[in-house]
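FORM 12-B: Structure-to-Sequence Request
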């Protein structure tokens, strides 16, 4: 039965993208009589901001297609009064009005509200560097930004571009500019791009960028920008006729702070369980809001569209007396980098360490579908779990296909308090074209359980270099032809198919480390050797494929001696 509202509410929304318009649309569905006004200082509302970088390469050919709805359509379809090029200057809490400036005319006026919703988003960080205000320096927040950037990149004398920042936006911009024919250098002040991946898995992304022609400079920062060069803190000078600053975003809290609303410990707007600010008449959603992490129970900032839309619905529901369960966020995200997909959810290894969890991890590789099917390719999966409970704390995946599906499943398990046992028991769809009968997640869950129970010892691929330098005994259990195609220097080749007849060649008085291509054969052989009395037999997580990926980028960019005679990425 439809709810009747005798006294129409006056609702004002600041910000007309994901959070703000979702809030307004939900209020309209709940209350057809409400007077709803949306103010946005930009030219466009309801645009696909996550799709912006793809206009640079032409994947999105027409920038106008990035705008999903116009104010006119929002008025006709949803009866929303959406006013673009209108900037809210201040909130007058005592009068329950906002002061608004019409950017085109310069006129100012006060708009009353009964309910106010803030969705100002987050703005790109532009460090105070010499030259950062130049005409060749760009940030990316809206359609106007990408149109201006795209037009500049079309100039005949723009060949070299520096992208500053290796987060999601930086990676997507770098990829699309490279696809458009530009020579791209990516500068990141941390030791890796994409901090939501651990060091071992992110090396696949580093390799993909390198192999695709993107120069990646890590542990460095921009010190000065001119119209032709970017100078770095290391003393390096990189040719660049254009620079894209993608060094992160900062929540826009100016309106809230000036109005005396509480700002949280993260620097974002504090909200309660129902997304109300410290003023009960004012709600806040989106990138400017402080959220709670479901695992750590600590406040976090999370600039993602999914949580913003869920928050908008929950806030609108509360306006009309409906209450939502709020479990917190786990930070599920995905990015495409050329042919690779990288996704993560939950905590990283660094975060688990900082939070003081007793945890362990596995690096597991298996095919995304039955191996003889077209386009079958490996998924590199890392799972972090609590010891001794087996509760899943985080998961990361990199591969060419099916990664997002697996990390979505891991996100669901984390949100439901799932364990390695739950992971192993997942009942998933199977078809040779889509998965294996025992999915990579099932396999990884079983491997994790055996490791948790102490039934097998494993080392991570990033530990292998140290083993080689210590002259540890490493046994490659692949067949002879595989061994000849590339192997760890100093490793012995005892194929899985022969080891039972060659047990006398395997030392039983010191640790031995076994690997194959992706880890299955060496895992089986390690387990059997353990059962036969070789209690110091240890499996190498990630095997040769994982090791090659972990080592490659550092070898190529640091000039260090490889520990493999030939890399193998197939």
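FORM 12-B RESPONSE
SEQUENCE OUT:
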């Amino acid at each position: 039965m439809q709810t009747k509202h005798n006294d129409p509410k006056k609702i004002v929304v600041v910000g007309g993208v994901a959070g703000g318009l979702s809030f307004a649309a939900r209020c309209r569905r709940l209350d057809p009589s409400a007077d709803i006004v949306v103010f946005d200082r930009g030219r466009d509302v309801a645009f696909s901001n996550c799709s912006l970088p793809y206009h640079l390469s032409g994947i999105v050919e027409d920038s106008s297609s990035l705008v999903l709805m116009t104010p006119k359509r929002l008025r006709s379809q949803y009866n929303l009064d959406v006013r673009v090029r209108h900037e809210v200057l201040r909130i007058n809490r005592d009068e329950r009005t906002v002061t608004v400036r019409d950017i085109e005319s310069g006129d100012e006026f006060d708009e009353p509200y009964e309910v106010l919703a803030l969705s100002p988003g987050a703005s790109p960080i532009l460090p105070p560097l010499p030259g950062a205000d130049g005409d060749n320096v760009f940030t990316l927040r809206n359609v106007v930004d990408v149109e201006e950037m795209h037009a500049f990149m079309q100039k005949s004398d723009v060949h070299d571009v520096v992208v500053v920042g290796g987060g999601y936006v930086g990676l997507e911009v770098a990829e699309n500019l490279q696809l458009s024919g530009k020579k791209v250098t990516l500068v990141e002040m941390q030791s890796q791009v994409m901090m939501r991946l651990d060091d071992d898995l992110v090396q696949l992304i580093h390799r993909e960028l390198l192999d695709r022609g993107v120069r990646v400079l890590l542990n460095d920062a921009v010190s000065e920008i001119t119209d032709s060069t970017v100078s770095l803190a290391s003393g390096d000078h990189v040719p660049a006729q254009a620079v894209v600053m993608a060094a992160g975003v900062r929540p826009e809290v100016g309106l809230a702070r000036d109005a005396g609303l509480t700002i949280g410990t993260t620097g974002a707007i504090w909200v309660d369980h129902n997304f109300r600010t410290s003023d009960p008449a004012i709600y806040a959603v989106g990138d400017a809001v402080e959220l709670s992490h479901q695992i750590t129970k600590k406040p976090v900032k999370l600039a993602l569209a999914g949580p913003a839309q869920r928050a908008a619905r929950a806030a609108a529901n509360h306006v009309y007396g409906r209450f939502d369960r709020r479990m917190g966020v786990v930070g599920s995200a995905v990015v495409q980098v050329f042919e690779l997909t990288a996704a993560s959810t939950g905590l990283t290894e660094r975060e688990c360490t900082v939070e003081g969890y007793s945890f362990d991890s596995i690096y597991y590789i298996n095919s995304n579908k039955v191996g003889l099917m077209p386009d079958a390719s490996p998924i590199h999966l890392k799972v972090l779990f609590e010891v001794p409970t087996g509760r899943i704390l985080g998961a990361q995946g990199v591969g060419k296909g099916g990664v997002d599906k697996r990390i979505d499943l891991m996100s669901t398990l984390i949100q439901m308090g799932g364990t390695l046992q739950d992971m192993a028991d997942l009942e998933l769809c199977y078809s040779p074209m889509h998965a294996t009968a025992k999915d990579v997640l099932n396999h990884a869950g079983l491997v994790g359980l055996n490791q948790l129970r102490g039934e097998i010892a494993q080392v991570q691929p990033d530990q292998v270099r140290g083993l080689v330098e210590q002259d540890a005994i490493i046994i490659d259990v692949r067949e002879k032809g595989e061994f000849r195609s590339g192997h760890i220097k100093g490793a012995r080749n005892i194929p899985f198919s022969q080891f039972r007849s060659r047990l006398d060649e395997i030392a039983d008085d010191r640790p031995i480390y076994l690997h194959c291509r992706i880890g299955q054969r060496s895992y089986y052989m390690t387990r059997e050797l353990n059962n036969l009395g070789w209690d110091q037999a240890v499996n190498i997580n990630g095997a040769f494929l994982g090791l090659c990926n972990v080592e490659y980028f550092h070898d190529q960019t640091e000039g260090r001696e490889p520990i493999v005679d030939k890399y193998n990425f197939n």
